[in-house]
Design a protein that fits this description.
By secondary structure, the chain is mainly alpha-helical. It is 89% helix and 0% strand.
Length: 73
Amino acid sequence: MEVLAAAIMLGLGAVGGAIGMGLMGGKFLEGIARQPELAPMLQGRMFLLVGLIDAIPIIGVGMAMLLLFTGGE
């Protein structure tokens, strides 16, 4: 049962992170197409937010490993 829970944590974390990064990348390109002079500022903010969004699957991996190696205790 712990293996199934870990798989769900990993899968949903990865899917959520991928959807978030895809949506943000699309909005980033829309913003650059509208106002190209703001590209450096938008790019810096986008990279910061991608790092924060990427933390979600990493935390999921940590929780799944904790669940698997401690036996759910």
